[in-house]
Amino acid sequence: QSTIDAFQQRNETFRNAIAKEYEDTPVEVSNAELGKRAPRWIRDNEVTMCMKCKEPFNALTRRRHHCRACGHVVCWKCSDYKAHLEYDGNKLNKVCKDCYHVIIGCTDSEEKKRKGILEIESAEVSGNSVICSFLQYMEKSKPWQKAWCVIPKQEALVLYMYGAPQDVKALATIPLLGYTVDDTPRSADLPHSFKLTQSKSVHSFAADNEELKQKWLKVIHLAVKGETRECENE
């Protein structure tokens, strides 16, 4: 028992040290720092798709890997590159395509192609949004599913839906202008739910609590009328 207790104490100390180091490490590594300092790894559960090619992960053919230079979660195809990393004693490490080009000094001509509306990264819009949070979402007769929902400040009349906060491609967008808001849940609905309807299109959402629901409704009630307001990102 004393051996078990000692082991658990050491394990707890180790976890605390790792957690503190994780918190103190800046999220993004600049191009100038690539390979020179260890990145903070994006957690596996923060993404549902490869952060480079945007293909969904699955357990068999597209598993999660981490780029050792930027810390992004990528699939095996997008991490099939190797570069010498200074922070790891100049050893060869698996890196993503983008980091590989930066580290070895090449440029990708397609890197700066204009992004489509669904290809705006979640972290990019969440960091400059009117409101963002997880909501439960249901369309037609499909089951409820959890989605990371964002209304960006630059497009305050559009609701973006992602699978997770760090995804690099939106699953769907809803132009809110002209929708009707129904904020009275029916008995079959989840608590704290509301609906957006326009013609035959119906989108159902549910927040975790009434306070969060009301925050969303304040923004959406304005957006469906073509109006906006500056709000703190909650």
TrEMBL record:
It comes from the Eukaryota. Pfam families: FYVE, PH. Residues 44-100 form the FYVE-type domain. The keyword Metal-binding applies. GO terms for biological process: cytoskeleton organization; filopodium assembly. Residues 128-225 form the PH domain. This is FGD4 protein. It comes from Rhinopomastus cyanomelas. The gene is Fgd4_0.
